[in-house]
Design brief:
- By secondary structure, the protein is an alpha+beta fold.
- It has a single domain (2-124), classed as D-amino Acid Aminotransferase, Chain A, domain 1, CATH 3.30.470.
- The chain has 4 helices and 6 strands, in the order E-E-E-H-E-H-E-E-H-H.
- The strands form 2 sheets. A 4-stranded antiparallel beta sheet has the order 2-1-5-6. The chain has a two-stranded antiparallel sheet with strand order 3-4.
- Strand 5 (67-75) and strand 6 form a beta hairpin.
Protein backbone atom coordinates (compact mmCIF):
# COMPACT_ATOMS: atom_id res chain seq x y z
CA UNK A 1 0.00 0.00 0.00
CA UNK A 2 1.67 3.21 -1.16
CA UNK A 3 1.13 6.34 0.91
CA UNK A 4 1.76 9.87 -0.35
CA UNK A 5 1.51 12.26 2.58
CA UNK A 6 -2.04 11.79 3.86
CA UNK A 7 -3.22 9.69 0.92
CA UNK A 8 -3.20 5.92 0.59
CA UNK A 9 -3.10 4.91 -3.06
CA UNK A 10 -4.57 1.42 -3.58
CA UNK A 11 -4.22 -2.17 -2.45
CA UNK A 12 -2.10 -4.42 -4.67
CA UNK A 13 -2.30 -8.20 -4.60
CA UNK A 14 1.05 -9.79 -5.50
CA UNK A 15 1.24 -13.35 -6.83
CA UNK A 16 4.72 -14.78 -7.54
CA UNK A 17 5.21 -16.45 -10.93
CA UNK A 18 7.87 -18.73 -12.38
CA UNK A 19 10.47 -20.88 -10.65
CA UNK A 20 10.03 -19.52 -7.11
CA UNK A 21 7.47 -22.21 -6.29
CA UNK A 22 5.05 -19.61 -4.93
CA UNK A 23 7.60 -17.67 -2.88
CA UNK A 24 8.03 -13.92 -3.22
CA UNK A 25 11.80 -14.16 -3.68
CA UNK A 26 14.34 -11.85 -5.34
CA UNK A 27 13.32 -12.93 -8.84
CA UNK A 28 9.61 -12.54 -8.11
CA UNK A 29 10.26 -9.05 -6.75
CA UNK A 30 12.72 -7.62 -9.26
CA UNK A 31 12.53 -9.56 -12.53
CA UNK A 32 10.08 -8.51 -15.21
CA UNK A 33 7.31 -11.10 -15.16
CA UNK A 34 8.48 -12.48 -11.80
CA UNK A 35 5.15 -11.69 -10.20
CA UNK A 36 1.66 -10.61 -11.15
CA UNK A 37 0.26 -7.43 -9.58
CA UNK A 38 -3.49 -6.96 -9.38
CA UNK A 39 -4.65 -3.40 -8.80
CA UNK A 40 -6.87 -2.95 -6.97
CA UNK A 41 -6.68 -6.23 -5.12
CA UNK A 42 -9.87 -8.27 -5.25
CA UNK A 43 -10.65 -8.12 -1.55
CA UNK A 44 -13.77 -6.91 0.16
CA UNK A 45 -14.07 -3.11 0.23
CA UNK A 46 -14.11 -2.91 4.04
CA UNK A 47 -10.79 -4.77 4.29
CA UNK A 48 -9.28 -2.57 1.58
CA UNK A 49 -10.46 0.55 3.41
CA UNK A 50 -9.02 -0.78 6.67
CA UNK A 51 -5.65 -1.43 5.01
CA UNK A 52 -5.61 2.09 3.57
CA UNK A 53 -6.44 3.62 6.96
CA UNK A 54 -3.79 1.56 8.77
CA UNK A 55 -1.16 2.43 6.15
CA UNK A 56 -1.75 6.18 6.59
CA UNK A 57 -1.89 5.86 10.39
CA UNK A 58 1.40 3.91 10.43
CA UNK A 59 2.98 6.49 8.09
CA UNK A 60 2.10 9.26 10.55
CA UNK A 61 2.83 7.28 13.74
CA UNK A 62 6.36 6.58 12.52
CA UNK A 63 6.94 10.22 11.57
CA UNK A 64 7.24 9.47 7.87
CA UNK A 65 7.15 12.26 5.33
CA UNK A 66 6.74 12.14 1.58
CA UNK A 67 6.11 8.59 0.44
CA UNK A 68 6.11 5.27 2.26
CA UNK A 69 4.86 1.79 1.48
CA UNK A 70 3.11 -0.45 4.01
CA UNK A 71 3.32 -4.20 3.45
CA UNK A 72 0.51 -6.41 4.73
CA UNK A 73 -0.44 -10.05 4.82
CA UNK A 74 -4.11 -10.91 4.58
CA UNK A 75 -5.29 -13.96 6.47
CA UNK A 76 -8.59 -14.90 4.89
CA UNK A 77 -8.44 -18.59 5.79
CA UNK A 78 -10.96 -18.41 8.63
CA UNK A 79 -14.66 -17.70 8.25
CA UNK A 80 -15.77 -14.20 9.13
CA UNK A 81 -13.73 -11.04 8.99
CA UNK A 82 -10.38 -11.29 7.21
CA UNK A 83 -7.39 -10.42 9.39
CA UNK A 84 -4.81 -7.88 8.21
CA UNK A 85 -1.26 -8.08 9.55
CA UNK A 86 1.00 -5.07 9.02
CA UNK A 87 4.47 -6.47 8.25
CA UNK A 88 6.51 -3.31 7.79
CA UNK A 89 6.55 0.27 6.62
CA UNK A 90 9.16 0.95 3.97
CA UNK A 91 10.32 4.57 4.19
CA UNK A 92 12.17 4.42 0.87
CA UNK A 93 9.85 2.59 -1.53
CA UNK A 94 11.32 1.50 -4.83
CA UNK A 95 11.03 3.49 -8.02
CA UNK A 96 12.05 0.76 -10.50
CA UNK A 97 9.91 -0.55 -13.38
CA UNK A 98 8.68 -3.39 -11.11
CA UNK A 99 8.14 -1.23 -8.00
CA UNK A 100 4.73 -0.89 -6.41
CA UNK A 101 4.66 2.84 -5.59
CA UNK A 102 4.93 4.09 -9.21
CA UNK A 103 2.52 1.37 -10.34
CA UNK A 104 -0.05 2.35 -7.71
CA UNK A 105 0.42 6.05 -8.46
CA UNK A 106 -0.20 5.39 -12.17
CA UNK A 107 -3.35 3.47 -11.28
CA UNK A 108 -4.49 6.57 -9.34
CA UNK A 109 -3.78 8.83 -12.32
CA UNK A 110 -0.36 10.12 -11.19
CA UNK A 111 2.30 9.81 -13.87
CA UNK A 112 5.88 8.83 -13.05
CA UNK A 113 7.03 12.39 -13.77
CA UNK A 114 4.31 13.83 -11.50
CA UNK A 115 5.24 11.37 -8.75
CA UNK A 116 8.92 12.32 -8.98
CA UNK A 117 8.00 16.02 -8.96
CA UNK A 118 5.80 15.54 -5.90
CA UNK A 119 8.58 13.70 -4.07
CA UNK A 120 11.08 16.47 -4.84
CA UNK A 121 8.62 19.16 -3.71
CA UNK A 122 7.98 17.30 -0.46
CA UNK A 123 11.70 16.92 0.21
CA UNK A 124 12.37 20.59 -0.62
CA UNK A 125 9.66 21.77 1.78
CA UNK A 126 11.04 19.87 4.80
CA UNK A 127 12.66 21.86 7.56
Amino acid sequence: MGVLGDRALTVTDITPCGDGEGFYDYTAKYAAGGSRHELPARIDPQTAEQAMRIAVEAHHALGCSGASRADFRLDDTQPGTPRLVLLEVNTQPGMTPTSLLPEQAAYCGISYAELCGWLVEQAACRR
